[in-house]
């Protein structure tokens, strides 16, 4: 099956308008015989340079980077709003885009009229829009304002109406820019729930945001752009940490080579990264008695032990642990900052221990990430899949959480435990059958 989006070696150039760079006119282009010759390098600013990636059907693909990195330009090129200067873009399926606040809305006419106009621009017939109109209004929550001119809307109301129309065109591919950050918290949650439903239905999302936590939680893969150039395409945590490292390096001017250590896209999964300001020297799993073990029964006490070293004094440090399945489903994670510990000072050897008195994971295999990083998330040393362990339980279950539980039955019901029967031949009631009994 072909990808939903294919971006192949795309570049986008803009003409410089600073003093000293002449504005090209049709007359000058004809005189110079360069009507189709493109821009000379000294005349051009590159918003995108040689960007390539594919997005599979049903995938949420994120794009991150600083202001001016080319994120919005990339979305406009994919949407067909801008034509690339070089390279090709292929989108398979109906596309809907929510890129610029109020794009496609006429300020002087009502919200209701703009719904029909915007829907038509996105490829719906008037009859299709009419059938979906009530759902659009309900989703937007703007029923009391649809007859008002759009110029009277707040920025948040623009977003509500624009997103409601975009998602009700039943797109195969949805492009979403930073505009979600303008909406209020409740509407943002509603939008994200709808995006999750679209992904479950096999739709494709191309998502741009400065909210790195949102990108990490929503996306399957992430592209990091810097000044129009692709730096890394990887699973979200890897790409986001690489971006944070580069930002920290630029701010501190002490680790400018950190960016050079970031592997190029396609070089495979990296299991360890960081600036090196602190180093993890070891990690272990211990049981409640302090014995090193890597096989537990659900509900047992488990300790995660991290040994680390800081060569120079640090006043900003956080220790973290994350547990996930081999397929990357996050089961549990915490760190010292989330737990309310404010760092004092650290230099030399140290050990951090996280104790879980009853780790109630479901039966299966698990991986452990350990990290030490700054409070803003910039990694000093991140070790992905540093440890692995397995969990068993007396009873079978589905999922990763396995709380203590019991069944109780009322009325005309009877059950038998597998392999057991009561003396009178009747089944057990199931009352007080605790986990593991």
Describe this structure as you would to a colleague.
Among the domains are: 5-93 and 172-234, Rossmann fold (3-Layer(aba) Sandwich); 273-392, abc- transporter (atp binding component) like domain (Coagulation Factor XIII, Chain A, domain 1, Distorted Sandwich); 405-437, no CATH class. It is an alpha/beta fold and 437 residues long. The chain has a 6-stranded mixed beta sheet with strand order 5-6-7-3-8-9, sandwiched between helices. It is built from 8 helices and 18 strands. The longest helix has 17 residues, at 236-252. The protein is globular.
Summarize this, please?
The protein has 437 residues and is α/β, with parallel strands linked by helices. The chain has helices at 26-31, 71-79, 111-121, 126-140, 155-167, 185-200, 212-218, 236-252, and strands spanning 5-15, 44-55, 60-64, 86-91, 95-98, 173-176, 204-208, 221-226, 229-234, 272-273, 279-287, 295-297, 302-314, 318-324, 330-335, 346-356, 364-373, 379-392. It has a six-stranded mixed β-sheet, sandwiched between helices. Strands 10, 12, 14, 15, 17 and 18 form a six-stranded mixed β-sheet that branches. A three-stranded antiparallel β-sheet has the order 2-1-4, with helices on one face.
């Amino acid at each position: 099956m072909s990808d939903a989006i294919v971006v192949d070696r795309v570049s986008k150039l803009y003409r410089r308008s600073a003093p000293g760079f002449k504005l090209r006119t049709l007359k000058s282009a004809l005189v110079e015989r360069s009507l189709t010759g493109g821009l000379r390098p000294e005349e051009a600013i590159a918003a995108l340079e040689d960007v390539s990636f594919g997005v599979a059907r049903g995938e949420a693909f994120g794009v991150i980077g600083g202001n001016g990195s080319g994120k919005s330009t990339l979305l406009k090129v994919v949407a067909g709003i801008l034509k690339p200067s070089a390279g090709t873009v292929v989108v398979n399926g109906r596309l809907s885009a929510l890129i610029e606040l109020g794009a496609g809305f006429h300020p002087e006419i009502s919200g209701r009229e703009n719904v029909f106009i915007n829907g038509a621009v996105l490829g719906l017939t008037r009859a299709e829009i009419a059938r979906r109109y009530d759902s659009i209004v309900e989703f937007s929550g703007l029923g009391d304002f649809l007859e008002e001119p759009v110029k009277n809307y707040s920025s948040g109301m623009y977003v509500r109406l624009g997103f409601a129309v975009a998602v009700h065109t039943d797109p195969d591919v949805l492009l979403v820019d930073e505009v979600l950050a303008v909406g209020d918290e409740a509407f943002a949650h509603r939008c994200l729930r709808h995006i999750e439903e679209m992904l479950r239905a096999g739709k494709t999302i191309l998502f741009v945001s400065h909210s790195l936590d949102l990108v990490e939680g929503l996306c399957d893969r992430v592209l990091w752009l810097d000044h129009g150039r692709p730096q890394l395409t990887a699973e979200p945590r890897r790409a986001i940490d690489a971006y944070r490292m580069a930002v920290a390096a630029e701010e501190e001017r002490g680790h400018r080579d950190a960016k050079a250590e970031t592997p190029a896209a396609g070089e495979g999964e990296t299991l360890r990264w960081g600036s090196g300001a602190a180093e993890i020297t070891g990690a272990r799993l211990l049981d409640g008695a302090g014995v090193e073990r890597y096989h537990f029964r659900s509900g047992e006490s488990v300790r995660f032990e991290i040994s680390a070293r800081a060569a120079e004094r640090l006043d900003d440090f956080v220790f973290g642990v994350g547990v996930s399945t081999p397929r990357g489903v996050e089961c549990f994670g915490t760190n010292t900052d989330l737990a309310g510990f404010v760092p004092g000072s650290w230099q030399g050897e140290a050990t951090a221990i996280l104790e879980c008195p009853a780790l109630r994971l479901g039966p299966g295999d698990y991986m452990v990430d350990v990290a030490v990083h700054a409070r803003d998330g910039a990694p000093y040393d991140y070790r992905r899949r540093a440890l692995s362990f397995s969990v068993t339980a007396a009873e079978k279950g589905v999922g990763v959480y396995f709380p203590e539980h019991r069944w109780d039955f009322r009325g005309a019901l009877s059950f038998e435990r597998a392999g057991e029967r009561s003396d009178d031949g009747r089944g057990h009631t199931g009352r007080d059958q605790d986990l593991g009994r």
